[in-house]
């Protein structure tokens, strides 16, 4: 029997994969990790602006998941639970450190993304500048709007899932996402505005 590609498992199989892993099936964990690693890392990196810290929280999140003996409540999707763990770990870190540190270098996702061919130097420079503009625009958003945007964009969570995860009314989540998208569009469409943000 051949291994199933990651995409062949619908999201509601995540909890089943976790149960299989806890019964000794290492491949089940590999499938879970493959499915959620990139979105989770991008979410953390976008939220904290520090790839090193994002990597630390990312690893801590998976360790916490492995060590946890409880399954999430049936009403909560595995993905929502995973992002809740990551969010709590990051908040705990910020509390210990007295909130967040300054923005570091641009996000490097090579460890977490499939190779898509080698870009030439001009493309790499352009990509780097785009990432810097996006990170600067994200940093300019109020924290609540940034978090909602990242959960939607990288976590691919629905509005009601974000509302449950952040313990915020769904209408408030909807408004925050709308304001975040409007501001990001404006900043990214106007390089001068983005440059002012990053200055």
What are the SSEs and their pairings?
Elements: H1 14-22, H2 26-48, H3 51-67, H4 78-97, H5 121-140, H6 143-153, H7 159-166, H8 170-189, H9 191-198
Helix pairs in contact: 1-2, 2-3, 2-4, 2-6, 3-4, 4-7, 5-8, 5-9, 6-8, 7-8, 8-9
**CATH H level, superfamily name of the largest domain:** RNA polymerase sigma factor, region 2, helix turn helix motif
Sheet bearing the most strands, described? none
Q: Say how many strands there are.
A: 0
CATH class of the largest domain: Mainly Alpha
Count of helix runs: 9
N to C succession of SSEs: HHHHHHHHH
Low-confidence stretches: 1-9, 100-119
Spatial shape: globular
General description of the model:
This protein has 9 helices and no strands. The chain has 199 residues and is mostly helical. It has 2 domains: 9-100, Orthogonal Bundle (Rna Polymerase Sigma Factor, Chain: A); 126-192, Arc Repressor Mutant, subunit A. α2 runs antiparallel to α3 (51-67), α4 (78-97) packs across α7 (159-166) and α8 packs across α9. The protein is globular, with a radius of gyration of 18 Å. The protein starts with 13 loop residues before the first helix and ends with a helix. Residues 1-9 and 100-119 have low confidence and may be disordered.
Summarize the structure.
The protein is mainly α and 199 residues long.
List keywords for this structure.
globular; 199 residues; Arc Repressor Mutant, subunit A; disordered N terminus; Rna Polymerase Sigma Factor, Chain: A; 68% helix; 9 helices; single chain
């Amino acid at each position: 029997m051949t291994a199933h590609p990651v995409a062949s498992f619908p999201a509601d199989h995540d909890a089943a994969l976790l149960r299989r892993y806890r019964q000794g099936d290492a491949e089940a964990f590999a499938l879970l990790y493959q499915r959620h690693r990139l979105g989770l890392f991008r979410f953390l990196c976008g939220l904290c602006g520090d790839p090193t810290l994002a990597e630390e929280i990312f690893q801590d999140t998976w360790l916490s998941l492995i060590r946890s003996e409880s399954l999430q409540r049936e009403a909560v999707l595995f993905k929502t639970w995973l992002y809740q763990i990551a969010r709590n770990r990051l908040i705990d870190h910020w509390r210990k450190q007295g909130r967040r540190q300054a923005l570091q270098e641009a996000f490097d996702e090579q460890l977490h993304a499939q190779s898509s061919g080698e870009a030439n130097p001009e493309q790499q420079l352009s990509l780097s500048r785009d990432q810097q503009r996006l990170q600067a625009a994200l940093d300019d958003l109020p924290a609540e709007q940034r978090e909602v945007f990242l959960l939607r964009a990288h976590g691919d969570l629905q509005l009601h899932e974000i509302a449950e995860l952040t313990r915020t009314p769904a209408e408030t989540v909807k408004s925050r996402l709308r304001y975040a998208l409007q501001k990001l569009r404006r900043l990214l469409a106007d390089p001068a505005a983005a440059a002012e943000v990053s200055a």
